[in-house]
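Re: iron/sulfur cluster structure - here you go.
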Amino acid sequence: MGSTLLEKVWDLHTVRRLPTGQTQLLVGLHLVHEVTSPQAFDMLRLRGQAVAFPDRTFATVDHIVPTDGQPRPFADQMAEQMMAALERNCREFGVPLFGLDSDDQGIVHVIGPELGLTQPGMTIACGDSHTSTHGAFGAVAFGIGTSQVRDVLASQCLAMDPLKVRRVAIGGALAPGVYAKDVILAVIRALGVQGGAGFAYEYAGPVVERMTMDERMTLCNMSIEGGARAGYVNPDDTTVAYLRGRRFAPAGDAFDRAAAWWRSLASDPDAVYHDEVSIDGAALGPMVTWGTSPGQSVEVGGRVPRPSDVAEAERSALADALAYMGLQPGSPIAGTKVDVAFIGSCTNGRLSDLREAARIVRGRRISTHVRGLVVPGSKRVREAAERDGLHEVFRDAGFEWREAGCSMCLAMNPDRLEGRELCASSSNRNFKGRQGSPTGRTLLMSPAMVAAAAIAGEVTDVRSLLPAAEAS
Ligand code: SF4
């Protein structure tokens, strides 16, 4: 009987089985950012401990960074304190930091892959829910809390509950205007926001095999929104080609040896899964969330559900979400007026996302009542986008072109919604108040759909803005 990638990587990193039934797992790569690390470093300092493996630990700043070029010290004192604490901690504990003065600064889940730190077969931990992103490379990657950040800093190990594996196969081929973001929103809608509890999701099937690494990262990024502890894609030629020549990837003969080993980690053809699910990719359309959880979504041509459309037990959550969102049961989601358009985040702030959004925007203007922000996921993404001239495309259309950071994905920096504003967002969470205002509203969708919404001033089907030959 064969093994899944998860089983292979898990076994390779197992230090011992704990009496609790958990596994003491060695963490190959620990990524650190400014929000969840200050207390963890303080706890180490109190105990007189060092960072066990500073060469397996890398830090960056992303959540609190103002993206409007604000100089230090930041106007927000709390942000300045977090920034200064990370700088001090990295200096004192010998942890490399990609700070604001580094050309490699950016969102932690964007820079790890970009630098080649993220590699197949690794276990990767970070004090951030969306660490599942790194699973796109065939790594086993999960978000951890602050006390676990302390544990990993001090011991490079974690006590982990065993995980089951669900194979999520996406069949067929995606139509033009349908992207990885639509696939993962459809997966979460089908399996539920808690459906992945206790599981790692292995994404497979023809659609996933054809995806670029950027698309696979979008898919894995939102695994956590479906309740899965991790999500991954088996390493293949696409993975190997992406990593070749990256700064922290092996070089020369060592790369070829590593590539052969990476491929050997893919789940065996006769691997046994705890569960298997198939979704027809060809049947998917562009998705939009209508509620306050990423599972509450509908295709752009669809309607917001009525109470009679859902099970009795779900009716009160439906009513609550619709009241918060100000949407009428049974109304079409297309045509919902949008105040803000945000393109960015660790889900969809990569170069290919910006290119696709720019393709929609080029030669058009965003609606006069829409505030549009484009925020690259890293300085390298920003630099590459500017080499392509994308910044001019976005600016000419009326978007603001910002510095790299998490920005409006969550409100830990000055980029926030005001009052009841409704935001078309390429990020990953539409929870109440997520984007800063306690009454602000978020509709999740692909970056191309955000671009389309910005132009129309309302939710609209991006396929109507694609060149006719493509859309047909
Ligand atoms: S972009 Fe959003 S989800 Fe991603 S790391 Fe930043 S705050 Fe977290």
